[in-house]
Amino acid sequence: MNSRFRFSSLLLSVHPLQGLVEAYLVGLLILASTSHLEGLVDPFVVQTAMFFLCGSCGMWAVLRIRLPDTGWFWRSLSDGLTGMILSLVMLFGIWPSGSFLKWDAIWRLTSWSTDQIIMVFCFTGIGFFFARIFVRLWLRWNAMRKRRMLWTITNAHLMVAIAFALIFIVIFFLVTPYSSTAARILQETRDPMASVATSLLVTFFPVLSLIVIGLVATLSVILPPSAVFSYFVSRRITRRLESLTKTTAALRAGDYTARVTVDGEDEIARLQSDFNAMADRLSTTLRDLNTEKNNTAQILQSRRDLIASVSHELRTPVATLRAAIETMLDRWDNTPPDENRRKVALMESEIHQLSVLIDDLFTLSQSDVDNLSLDCAPTDLLPLVKEVVDGFSPLAWQSGRVEVTAQVPEKLPAALVDPRRMRQILLNLLRNGVRHTPPGGIVAVSAAQVGDILRVDVRDTGEGISPDDLEHIFERFYRGTNAAPESAGLGLALVKELVEAMGGWINVESKPGEGSCFSLTLPMAK
Ligand code: ADP
Fold first, then answer.
1. Residue nearest to atom 19 of ligand 1 (CA)
2. Which residues contact 94 (CB under 8 A, 6 or more apart)?
3. Atom of ligand 1 nearest to the CA of 433
4. Cβ neighbours of residue 329 under 8 Å, at least 6 residues apart?
5. Which of 125, 203, 330, 358 is 20 to 30 A distant from 445 in Cα terms?
6. Which atom of ligand 1 is the closest one to the Cα of 493?
7. Which CATH superfamily is domain 374-523 in?
8. CB neighbours (10 Å) of residue 98?
9. What pTM did the predictor assign?
10. Which residue intervals of the chain bear CATH 3.30.565.10?
11. Strand partners, 515
């Protein structure tokens, strides 16, 4: 809790009724004090107290009564009513109370008629009304100057004008004959208490009243031209700041293309160019972040797909193997040893398939996180192709009566590839070719230099790929309409990933019924 007392919390804070009662009590206090001055001071001093009385009661009410939280019309109406009641308080409260308590020196000693006294009392309420309008204007002005720099600058001009006006008023007071009368009266007052009251009534209060009147007059005269002047003087500054504020708001609202026109060479111009630089930086960072976010989302999605597909792909062969092992164990003693051996061999080939699948998955997951380890080195492709073809052709012939050949030139520049991965790529493509080529067909591997790159083709005379499948065959787990039962749909995805990781790319051309040709484009060693 903030327990510190603030003087401003006393201002404009009470209910009108309370404010009026307080004003009445202030009036009584002044009457009580001035009644004691009778006989001690010049009668003129007591006469001036009439203004002091009305001015003090009025100002007390002006500064204490809170402003209603409504529109201008209702506020004015409420202030008008309060002013009227204040006049009534003066007429029917202060006046009779003063007369009854014999504290009426201030109007008994004046040369004013009763009508004039009534007028002065009534004027308290009218003065209250206009002073409240001034207070409201002042508060409004304060709010305006806090919100707009243009008005802050105008306010600074005003303060200078007001300071001059105040100095002028004080000098004016000092040079008028009134000040010498006041000085004379002050000198003649013997009683120390009475001299304090005299100086208050003939010096301080009139000066204060003049200052208030002077302030109101200065403000009403100076404010409009000063505002116009400041407007023109400060427009260039504020216009540039406003455009900066607008652009900042646009940027905050998400328009990252918003920029401000740099105008001039002063501090504001520097702020404008700094703002633009900051906005440039922000948009670049955001763009990078967005790309990163999309990449991460893509990786996460492909991870999810991978896990779903992997669990599906692994579950079936593992369940089949388990069932086969259980049946075999049940019937082990009743089955001839040759039959058991044949079954174990079948299982071994199943397990081999599984381990190939797991290897492929591992390689793909490594490439997902950019962790694919490649050992690229200048490699002569001719012996490599021959070695793969020679190793694979007997099996191709045995299993499907398909001839696998190598059609390579005498010499070929070295390729910059990882030889182990290159073998894996060729084996995958050969295996696919043989798998999709009917007996009597051919799968040929050729290699050639084309410009500054090397090209390796794996062409088959098989069933070809339908245009619908052709668009998807490089996707993970995609199996075409002609897919073999043991196919997992990972081979070509892996081949593409490896070729691209080595800096090359893969193409395919295929016509259903005529065969397919997978072309690898590989970088040459420098
Ligand atoms: P898998 O290794 O399981 O065969 P791939 O990714 O290598 O999977 O192949 C995806 C699909 O592409 C296969 O299911 C098949 O339909 C098609 N395909 C691949 N190679 C050939 C080919 N040489 N001839 C015809 N179709 C092919």
1. 432
2. 24, 27, 28, 31, 53, 57, 121
3. 23
4. none
5. 358
6. 6
7. Histidine kinase-like ATPase, C-terminal domain (3.30.565.10)
8. 23
9. 0.51
10. 374-523
11. 511
